[in-house]
Amino acid sequence: MASIAELTPKETPTWCPGCGDFTILSSLKNAIAEAGLKPEETVIASGIGCGSKAPHYVKTYGFESLHGRGIPAATGAKLANHKLNVLVVAGDGDTYGIGCNHFMHTMRRNLNMTFVIQDNAIYGLTKGQTSPTSQQGFKSNSTPTGVLEEPVNPVRWAIIAGATYVARGYAMDINHLKELIVGALKHNGMSVVDVLQPCVTYNKVNTAPWYNERVYHIKDHNVKDKEAAMKLADNEWGDKIPIGLFYHEKDKPTYEEGIPQIAKQPLKDHDISNVDISKLLLKYK
Amino acid sequence: MSRIVNKFSWKVGGAAGDGILNAGLQMFAKTCLRGGLQVFATAEYPSLIRGGHNNLDVHVCAEPVHSHTKDTNLLVAFNKETIDKHKHELTEGAGVIFDGDNVKVEENEFDKKVRLYPVPLLKLANENGGKVMRNTVALGATMALLDFDMTIFNQVVSDNFLKKKGQGIVDSNIKAAKAGFDYIKSTQKEEFGWKLEKQERENNLFMSGNEAIAAGAIKGGCKFYSAYPMTPASSVMINLAAQERNFGIVVKHTEDELAAVNMAVGAAFAGVRSATGTSGGGFCLMAEGFGLANMSETPIVMVEAMRPGPGSGMATHTSQGDLRFLMHVSTDEAPRIIIAPGDIEECFFRTIDAFNLAEKYQMPVIILTDKFLAESYATAVEYDVSNVKIERGKLMTDAEAAKETDYRRYRITEDGISPRAIPSQKGAIHVASSYEHDEHGNECEDEDNRVAMHDKRFRKLDNADKDIDRPKTYGDGDLNILSWGSTKGPVLEAQKLLEKDGIKTKFTHVVFMSPFPTKEMTDLAKDPNLIIVENNKTALFAGMIREHTGLEIERKVLRYDGRGFAPEDIHKGVKEILNGKKEVVFSRHGITRSE
Fold first, then answer.
1. CATH value at residue A241
2. Nearest CA in chain B to A14
3. ipTM
4. Which residues of B touch A94 (CB under 8 A)?
C-alpha cells in the first residue's frame, strides 16, 4: 500500500484554480491508497481533455491515449495482464460523446476495471462547447441558441449497458467520492463512477453552488434492485440530485474469468521464446 | 497426340453457396498436394452469401508454381453462366464437365475444339447422399479424366470429413466420387489431353496468405489480436480465433476498428505482442490509433489486406491501391515499417519479422497484403523455423527496471530507441502519452524538446533501415522488371513465359516498402528500360521512386479492374513495351490501353 506522498509525482496540475479535477484527483489518490493498490501494479488510462491529464498526476503507470479511446486502451492492458488494477479516467465528452460506442460495449463485457468520469457537462479544453451531458437548452459557443437534445443520463446508460457497480459522485464531496471509488476498486467487475463536477471557467450554469443546493446522499435504496436504481436515476434530476451508489451486482462473472487462456498466468507472462506450431501445421498438410 | 503430364489448370464455377470453393481447395487441391504436385489456387467470388458467380482456379504443376494462369484445361461448370463466362479461357482440346441433364451446351458455342463431358451430376449426387454431393461427383469425374490416383483422393475425403461429420459422410462422398469417376470411364471415347501423375513429395503445406500470417503471428509470439471483420482481412482473425485456446492467445472481436487498434496498443503497452488487422476502410478508422502507437512508441503489428476502393469499393477483389495511404497514414510525419510479402512463405516469415521489428524499434509495423495474396492458396515446403528468434529489443527485465532511479521512458539515445518498461515493473513507473512529451513522458510543448523527440523517433527508422532485408532479384537478363508485394508470383511465372520467347529478365521484388530502399531503387531506376508492374492505376510505387530518387519510370504494366495479374498479362505487357509502348493496362479482356 502506498501513501498519498508516494502516489504524488513531481508534476503539478495545469487545471484552473477551483476546478473539480483537483478534488477528483484527491479522492482518486486517497481511494487508491485506501484500497491498498500497489502503484506499479496499477494503470490509469485516460483519453484527451482537461481531466484526462490525471495520469500524469498520480504516480502509477499511466497511458494518456486518444480522445475517446481510454477505454479500449485500458481493455487491451487489462487483457494483456489481468493482474493489473486498471482504471480509466476520462471526461463526459470523451466518454459519452466520441467514446460512447466503447463505453456501451465495455459495460456489457464486465471486465474488472474501474471507470471514473469527470462529468462537468462542458468541453473545457477546447474552450467551452456543449457536451453530451449538458442540459437541454444549454447555451455555449457551439450551441448559441441552446442544445436541442436531451442530455445523456450516465447512470441509466451504465446500468442498461451492463455495468455491475454504478455510482454518482460529486467532486466537492471529497470523502463521499473517495468512498464510492474505494467501493468501485474493490468491486470485482465493471465499476463506473460518474462524477458531477463544476467547470469554473466555462460552465456558468452547473456551478458548485448550483450542485451544493441540489445534491443529497442516497439513503434507503436497495442497490441490488436494478429497477429501483433506474427509477432513481431517471426521476431525480433537477431540484434534487441523488449521489451515491445506485446499483451493485456482486456475483456476475467477469470477462477475464471467461478466458481459460489466462487462468494460470497473465498473457504477459506466457513464454513466447519458442512456440511449437507443428500441430497447427498438420491442418495444412 | 501425347498427353500433357503434370501441367494442368482446372477451374470450377457455380453459384455462391454451392460449396465449390471448399471442394476445390480441401479436396482437389489437397489431393494434388499429397500426390507430390505443386499447386496454386485462387478464387473469385462476389460479396454476397448466396447466388452470384463463384469460381476457383487450381493450377497444378510438377515444378514450383507461383500463380494461376489465364488458360483453363478443364472447366467444371455447375451452371450455364460458368460456361458463358469462362469459355474464352479454354485451351485447344480442353474439357468441360457439366450436368447434361440441366445444362444444354453445343460444341459450336466454343471458338476452339473442346471436349464436352455431360455428367448427370445432380442425378448421381441424389443417388449417393443428396444434392450437396454434386461437387464430389464432379471431383470424381475430374480424377477420371486425369487418371489420378483415387486412393489419395479417398484418404483426403476421409481426413476432411471423418472428425467433423463421421464415417457415413465419408462413405457417401467416396461413393459419389466413384459414381462420377465410373461415369466418365464408361462413357469416355478418347483420352483426355492432360494427365496427373504422383511424384516424390517435397511440399508439405497448402495454405492461404492469411493462414500463413496467422501461423506466423502464433510462431512470432503474438498473444493478443483485436480486430473487426473486414474482407479480405477477416480470415486472419478467424484463423487465430480458432487457435486461441490451443496457443494461449486472446482474440478480441471488437465493437469497431477504433477499439481494435486501441486495444492492441493497450495490450502492447502492458507488455504482450499484439496485432490488429483490417482492410483499407478499417484502416481509415485506425489512422489515429496508428499515430498513437507511433507517438507513444508502442510496438504493434497491423495487417492491411487491400481491396479496391475508395469507400467500400469491391470487398472481395484485389488492388495495390492503398500503398500511398499507408506510407502517409497518421497526422504529421511518423516513421513506420511497412512489409509487403510476395507469397505464402513470406507471409509466414515476414509476420514473425514484423513482431520482432515492432519491439526492436518500438513503432507500428504494417503487413501489407491484398485479396489476391491473402486469399490465394499455394503449396510450400514446410517452414524451417529452426532459425526463428524472438527479439524483444530494449524491453527491460524486472530486475533491470528495479535498478532505475530516474527512469525515462523516452530517453534520448543514439539509436533513438529507449529502454522500455511495462506495468508491474517496480522502479520504472511512467506515463506513456499521445501528446508530445519529454523524456519522462510528461506533456511538453517546448521547441527544442519537440525537435529532439521528433528526431529521436525518426532515428529509429534509420537504424531499422540497416536491419531489414534488401529487395531480392530473381533470374538474370538485360531486361529489368520491378514489382512489390503480391505481384511477385505472376511476375515469376511471366519470366518463364518470356524466357520461352528468348527474353531473359532480371526481376527485382520489393518487400520492405518502408524504410524505403532508396539506394537499390536509384540503381534500378537509372535503367531507362526498367518495367514496373503494379496492381493499381497510377503506378503508386513508381511515384514513390520518383519522390525518393528523382527518377521517372516510364514503362509500366498496370491492372486495376479488381483482379490480380495473370502471368500471361505481364508476358504480353512486357512484349508490348518491347515493341515501343510505355504504359500497358490490362483487364479480363486483355489489353485495354496501350500507349
1. 3.40.50.970
2. B443
3. 0.98
4. none
Fold assignment, B209-380: Rossmann fold (3.40.50)
Chain B nearest-CA residue for A74: B266
How far is Cα A220 from Cα A234, in angstroms, rounded to an integer?
Answer: 17
**Per-position DSSP letters for A34-88, written without gaps between them:** HHT--GGGEEEEE-SSSGGGGGGGSSSEEEE--TT-HHHHHHHHHHH-TTSEEEE
Q: Which of A69, A272, A284 sits opposite B205 (nearest CB)?
A: A284
Total tally of structural domains belonging to chain A: 1
Query: Percentage of residues in chain B with pLDDT exceeding 90?
Result: 95
A269 CB-side CA count, 13 A: 13
pLDDT tens digits, B286-302? 999 999 999 999 999 99
Taking only the tens place, the pLDDT of each residue in B417-426 is 999 999 999 9
Q: Does residue A142 fall inside a structural domain?
A: yes
What is the pLDDT confidence band of residue A231, given thresholds at 50, 70 and 90?
A: very high
Q: What pLDDT does B210 receive?
A: 98
Domains B4-203 and B472-594 share a fold: no
Residue B163 neighbours by CB under 8 Å, 6+ apart:
none
* B16-73 pLDDT, tens digit each: 877 888 899 999 999 999 999 999 999 998 888 777 889 999 999 999 999 999 999 9
* Strand-pair partners of A193: A116, A167
> Could you tell me the residue range of the domain that residue A183 belongs to?
20-255
Sequence spans of domains, chain B: 4-203, 209-380, 398-467, 472-594
Q: Is the pLDDT of residue B13 over 80?
A: yes
How confident is the model at residue B1, as a pLDDT?
Answer: 63
- Contact between B289 and A84 using a beta-carbon 8 Å cutoff: no
SS3 label, residue B464: helix
Assign domain B472-594 one CATH number from 3.30.365.10, 3.40.50.920, 3.90.550.10, 3.40.718.10. Answer: 3.40.50.920
The CATH fold assigned to B4-203 is Pyruvate-ferredoxin Oxidoreductase; domain 3 (3.40.920)
A3 CB-contact burial (10 Å; exposed 0-12 / middle 13-18 / buried 19+): exposed
CB spacing of B424 vs A284 below 8 angstroms:
no
3-state secondary structure of B346: helix
**Separation of alpha carbons A207 and A4, rounded Å:** 28
